[in-house]
Design goal:
The protein is mainly beta. The chain contains no helices and eleven strands.
Length: 124
C-alpha cells in the first residue's frame, strides 16, 4: 500500500506563488510516477503535471507551462509542485496521485493512490 499526503496550499493574490508538497509513504518502491491534478467546484478533475521517479520524464498541461514546476526528492519521497504567477483561474483543490506503470500520464485514470487534496485560492 502507498499513502499520499499533500500540503502547502493556501490563499494568495494573483501573481503570487505557493509550493505544494506531496509526501509518499509505504511501498514507495512500487511508485514510478507522480501526478498532480486539480478540481474546481462544479468542474471535472484536470491534469496539471506529472513526473517520473527519476525525473527523466516530465509533462505539463499547456495552461501551466512556464509557471508551474514539478520536482521530486527521491531521498525524502517528497514531490513538489512550485506554483508561480498564479491566476484566479488556478484556484482549485490540488491532488497528488501516485502510480506504477511505464509512462507519465496526464490522465487521472491510471493513478492508483490519491491524497486528500490541498486547497489553493487565488484572489484578483
Amino acid at each position: 500500500q502507498v499513502q499520499v499526503v499533500e500540503s502547502g496550499g493556501g490563499s494568495v493574490q494573483a501573481g503570487g506563488s505557493l509550493r505544494l508538497s506531496c509526501r509518499v509513504s509505504g511501498d514507495t518502491d512500487s511508485v514510478n510516477y507522480i501526478g498532480w491534478f486539480r478540481q474546481a467546484p462544479g468542474k471535472e478533475r484536470q491534469a496539471v503535471a506529472c513526473i517520473s521517479r527519476e525525473m527523466d520524464s516530465i509533462d505539463y498541461v499547456d495552461s501551466v507551462k512556464g509557471r508551474f514546476t514539478i520536482s521530486h526528492d527521491n531521498a525524502k519521497n517528497i514531490n513538489y509542485l512550485q506554483l508561480n504567477s498564479l491566476k484566479p483561474g488556478d484556484s482549485a483543490m490540488y491532488y497528488c496521485a501516485a502510480r506504477d506503470g511505464l509512462y507519465c500520464s496526464l490522465s487521472p485514470a491510471p493513478y492508483t493512490y490519491w491524497g486528500q487534496g490541498t486547497q489553493v485560492t487565488v484572489s484578483s
